[in-house]
Amino acid sequence: MSDAHNIIRFREVGVRYGAHTALRDLSLDIPCGSINAILGPNGAGKSTFLKACLGWLPLSHGEIRIGDKHLEHALPRLAYLPQRQTIDWDFPITVRRVVEQGRYPRLKPWQKFQASDHNAVNHALDELGIMSLADRPISQLSAGQQQRVFLARALAQGADIFLLDEPFTGLDATATEELAHILRSWEVQGRTVLAAVHDFDLAKKAFGRGILLANKLIASGPILSVLTEANIESAYKTPRLLETDPLKHARSASFPS
Amino acid sequence: MTLKELFISPFSYGFMQRGLVSALLLSISGGLLGSILVLRRLSLMGDALSHSVLPGMAIAWLIFGPSPVALFIGALIAGLLTALGSAALSRLTKVKEDAAFGSLFIVFFGAGVALLSRLPVRINLENFLFGSILSVSPSDIKLSLSVSALTVAVFIVARRGILLETFDPLFHRATGGKGGFIHALLLILTVLNLVAGMQTMGVVLSLGLFLLPAVTAYLWCETFLKLLLTACTLALISSFSGILISYYTGIASGACIVLCLGAIFIISVIFSPTHGVLSKLIETAKQQRSVNHSLD
Question: Domain segments of chain A: what residues?
Fold first, then answer.
């Protein structure tokens, strides 16, 4: 790929937890403004991949560059969305106050919210269509609305790279469709997204590009060229269906007489 | 008896004034701190800490005599050892953090009781556990004032960090926040407040002044600021009424304050409009009525 602008570049990256190698020899480029699904079996290094982007893990090898700067200088450009389940949704706080958290990193302890901060918050609430929920306690939100509050907070940060940890987990069909729609609209606006995803069909539908991991890079590029049978098989090792004949058990089943 | 005689005249005594001022000061810092402990699910850690500071204070007393500063430092070291020790235990062994905390604090408490019984000077264990309003000295007031002021100051300066670390530690970290620092800060403030509350309420009961107002406020409030303010207000009201009741009945002041808080808590548990038992029961009854079982 001769793309002029790759916003994130991995060069021979290795990450180890003690004796266990989580990622090895990972080299890949992520084009600016692409929507990427990070795929792979459990323990394949999807979370490690995101955490490495955030600079939370010491790299045992290689380097990660974001934009043209080294990772440590690029924190403001990155917005991280933790899994929805890590939050206590009974927490006494309103939607607006959560979205305002996106502005905290810009403020010194004694600084008050400026007009620009309020604008950013309102804009984020507006873009995700949750302005009408702004003064609701978060305990009253549906799963899809919760996810949009998180996305709004990330927008309010003013970041241009979004790291989402399993954003689709626990969403119903409508909410899944909505989130996919939001991500597609972000692609049009030139935002870069990296999201850990489990569901192949969803990945094919909502994401332009894919990164398939199994502690090393199996494939990366346009999503359809990544999710081929051969690639999936080599990532998941075991064949996807244990028994290819769905009627086998029906034939061999014994019934009580 | 006029209202003035009922509410004001008990405080013509110096010891009553000191007890009240000390309790009111700690109500403010306790309400703030307790809210965070409850939201972060660290209520039991507070309980464990309140017991585990005993040996630190006993050793400090043994070496430096009854100086508040020495007692505080001793308590802080013992508290930190428990907290860090259980964190280390849970990471290095199979033992989970709550079990590690539970085991360590009871060992510390045992060591404290053992030390106390071997001390040349007799310290009243009852005072440590339950406090005595009669024993609040002017220097204790100074300690309460500094602790309360420090707690409020930390909550003002680090308000955003405390909120982020409580609500979403991962996001806090991703935006460059220092979670470990905030956690340690809260731990130190908890120990400070426990020690400062010892004279008025006793270490164990002063934890009640932190947790009960916060849990009660949690049942009523839907925003963070309201939660903090409600917790502080409840603590202030209960401190005042508890000390009055203690004056008229002769029951230990710490117990009276905690019982006042307990009464408000139980009323809230039953009647809170959104989270109370009563509203849950009504809700369930409505749902049951909407389902019709039939045999066909």
Answer: 33-56+68-235
Instruction: Decide if pLDDT at A239 tops 70.
Output: no
**Architecture of the domain defined by A33-56+68-235:** 3-Layer(aba) Sandwich (3.40)
Domain of residue B26 covers: 3-284
Instruction: Report whether pLDDT(A5) > 70.
Output: yes
Q: How many CB atoms lie within 10 A of CB B59?
A: 20
Asked, for residue B292, whether it belongs to a domain, the answer is no
User: How far does Cα A118 stand from its chain's mean position?
Assistant: 26
B163 at A interface, C-beta within 8 A: yes
| Coil, strand or helix at A219 | strand
Candidates A75, A84, A91, A146, partner chain B, best to mutate (most B CBs within 10 A):
A91
- Determine the distance in angstroms separating the CA of B16 from the nearest CA of chain A, rounded to an integer: 37
Nearest in space to B209 (alpha carbons), one of B174, B257, B280: B257
Residue for token pair 């700690």: B26
User: Which CATH number characterizes residue B52's domain?
Assistant: 1.10.3470.10
Sheet holding A61-66, edge to edge: A20-31, A6-17, A61-66, A69-70
Per-residue model confidence (pLDDT) at position A1 = 42
Total tally of structural domains belonging to chain B: 1
- State which amino acid sits at residue B62: L
pLDDT of amino acid B79 = 85
Host H or E run for residue A21: strand A20-31
Token pair in block for residue A86: 């890590």
Q: Which of chain B's residues have a Cβ under 8 Å away from the Cβ of A80?
A: 170-171, 174-175
Using a CB–CB cutoff of 8 Å, tell me whether A18 touches chain B: no
The Cα angle at residue B100 between residues B96 and B105, in degrees rounded to 5: 155
Task: Look up the pTM and report it.
Answer: 0.84
Return the number of other C-beta atoms located less than 10 Å from residue A127's C-beta. Answer: 18
* Closest-CA distance of chain B to residue A163, Å: 10
Distance of alpha carbon B42 from alpha carbon B78, whole angstroms: 18
